[in-house]
């Protein structure tokens, strides 16, 4: 029989103690209304008075804008897009009533608004905010907090029936008003590979469909809660974020509604509630991976190469441009691609921690770029807007300046999202790894500079979409980056790559001193 380590048990109990404070179990239990709600917002049912005592209405300049949920005597949680003007002091917060027309504009005010530090309004990422009230709420039968989940598991409510509440529009029309009475509706979580409009769901969103054909969310429901009933209590699992609208800006209730996943942000909520700043959980050791054996040309397992990143350019969607490699907890090495508009940094993003090439990368894995350091005409180092805090992501090691010949005639590994059909329009949806051999003595390599490595494979090589991939070699027990790919061979038409021929990478060792200087 195995026993828990007592130090671990103490840490676990301490974590739950802090979390309980966040969940606001003070004089009143969380998640237990005095009035039993009908578990049965477009075409939603009018909620009974006091059935959802944690509901809060948010006003701006005396106009209702969003919903929110009380989670502590001095904390309301809502969507970031509802209160993204942190300097605005005209927000008011009303609670303890289902009928917002009875509001007499004597609501509570905020002493501080906490927008998630990685909130991106343009692509609706990390759409979550906490409001610190000026005065603490006195809980009563009319006003109580909702419980926060006790686990960070996102799939706990998959395919389960949940309830949303809000004062949003009631018929989906673009010219209709929000509801005067609090409404509720039943929804079903449809995350798991749904083809009902949820297929492009992001990792930090719940995708929901109405339990009946005429129910869903609409304008004005933003910020409101997605609630799940278990063990006799209501828990807050989601925050209403966005719905799809047609050209006339009318809600399409047949389409899904999307909610920010609260379990994913429990640590951030805890830090804000306790006044503690985040600590980086990035592994200090570089070049360490879980990979035991590399098999050429195969899809990799998650986190096998935790330093390989996707560089995206914001157009209508976040277009994948090329790969890059994390070389510190805040810096990425990649090609000095002429297609980049380096002066337009707000359009450049780095997605990391995922093997999948999604249309919309998970928001927790998306970082903006704040500066670019040009190492040579061919290589650049990107600085991310903050250090990486994903425990599944770590940097690769840099070589020393005397290791240039170490990989000559050796087998190396590369990985990327390049073409699987050998054509320009057939990118792999998953990260693929392959083994290649360095051969700078090959006749076709002679025309390339001594600042390059030439590599060959056995019926495998890089292709369209693989530029920026790293040349990786295991030095001791640590993976080290020796090159960055910039060239592959095509057929005479230039439309199909020839994986039996040579590929070429810039030699990173030649620039390693400049690269290290860029990290300072």
From TrEMBL:
PROSITE patterns for this protein: TRYPSIN_DOM, TRYPSIN_HIS
Peptidase S1 domain sequence ranges: 41-274, 294-520
Cross-referenced InterPro entries: Peptidase_S1_PA (IPR009003), Peptidase_S1_PA_chymotrypsin (IPR043504), Peptidase_S1A (IPR001314), Ser/Thr_Proteases_Immune/Dev (IPR051487), Trypsin_dom (IPR001254), TRYPSIN_HIS (IPR018114)
Keyword Disulfide bond on entry: yes
Swiss-Prot/TrEMBL keywords: Disulfide bond, Signal
SMART domains: Tryp_SPc
One Pfam family named in its UniProt record: Trypsin
A GO MF term: serine-type endopeptidase activity
GO BP terms, alphabetized: proteolysis
Keyword Disulfide bond: yes
Signal sequence residues: 1-24
PANTHER family from the UniProt entry: TRYPTASE-RELATED (PTHR24256)
Assigned protein family: Belongs to the peptidase S1 family. CLIP subfamily.
Protein name per UniProt: Peptidase S1 domain-containing protein
Taxonomic source organism: Brachionus calyciflorus
Taxonomic lineage from the root: Eukaryota, Metazoa, Spiralia, Gnathifera, Rotifera
């Amino acid at each position: 029989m195995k026993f828990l380590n007592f130090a671990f048990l103490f840490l676990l109990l301490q974590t739950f103690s802090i979390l309980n404070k966040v969940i606001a179990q003070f004089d009143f239990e969380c998640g237990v209304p005095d009035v039993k709600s009908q578990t049965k917002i477009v075409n939603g049912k009018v909620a009974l008075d006091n059935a959802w005592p944690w509901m809060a209405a948010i006003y701006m300049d005396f106009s209702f804008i969003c919903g929110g949920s009380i989670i502590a005597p001095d904390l309301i949680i809502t969507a970031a897009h509802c209160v993204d003007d942190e300097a605005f002091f005209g927000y008011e917060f009303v609670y303890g009533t289902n009928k917002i027309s009875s509001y007499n504009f004597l609501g509570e005010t905020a002493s501080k608004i906490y927008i998630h530090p990685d909130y991106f309004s343009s692509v609706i990422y990390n759409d979550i905010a906490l409001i610190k009230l000026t005065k603490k709420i006195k809980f009563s039968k009319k006003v109580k907090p909702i419980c926060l989940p006790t686990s960070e598991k996102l799939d706990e409510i998959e395919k389960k029936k949940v309830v949303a509440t809000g004062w949003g529009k009631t018929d989906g029309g673009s010219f209709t008003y929000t509801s005067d009475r609090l409404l509720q509706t039943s929804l079903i979580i449809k995350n798991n590979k749904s083809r009902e409009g949820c297929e492009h769901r992001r990792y930090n969103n719940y995708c929901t469909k109405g339990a009946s054909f005429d129910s869903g969310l609409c304008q004005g429901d933003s910020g409101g809660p997605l609630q799940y009933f278990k063990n006799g209590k209501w828990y807050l699992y989601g925050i209403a974020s966005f719905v799809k609208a047609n050209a006339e800006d009318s809600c399409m209730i047949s389409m899904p509604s999307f909610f920010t996943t609260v379990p994913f942000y429990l640590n951030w909520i805890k830090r804000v509630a306790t006044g503690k700043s985040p600590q980086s959980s990035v592994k200090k050791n570089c070049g360490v991976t879980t990979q035991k054996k590399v098999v050429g040309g195969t899809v990799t397992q998650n986190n096998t190469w935790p330093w390989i990143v996707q560089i995206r350019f914001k157009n209508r969607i976040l277009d994948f441009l090329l790969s890059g490699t994390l070389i510190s907890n805040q810096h990425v090495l990649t090609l000095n691609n002429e297609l980049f508009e380096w002066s337009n940094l707000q359009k450049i993003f780095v997605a990391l921690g995922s093997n999948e090439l999604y249309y919309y990368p998970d928001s927790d894995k998306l970082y903006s770029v704040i500066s670019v350091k040009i190492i040579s005409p061919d290589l650049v180092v990107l600085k991310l807007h903050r250090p990486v805090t994903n425990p599944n992501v770590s940097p690769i090691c840099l070589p020393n300046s005397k290791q240039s010949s170490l990989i000559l005639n050796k087998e190396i590994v590369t990985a990327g999202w390049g073409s699987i059909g050998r054509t320009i329009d057939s990118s792999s949806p998953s990260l693929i790894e392959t083994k290649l051999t360095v051969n700078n003595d090959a006749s076709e390599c002679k025309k390339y500079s001594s600042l390059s490595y030439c590599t060959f494979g056995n019926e495998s090589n890089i292709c369209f979409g693989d530029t920026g991939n790293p040349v990786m070699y295991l030095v001791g027990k640590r993976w080290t980056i020796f090159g960055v790919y910039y060239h592959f061979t095509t057929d005479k038409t230039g439309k199909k790559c020839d994986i039996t021929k040579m590929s070429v990478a810039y030699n990173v060792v030649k620039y390693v001193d400049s690269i290290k200087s860029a990290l300072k």
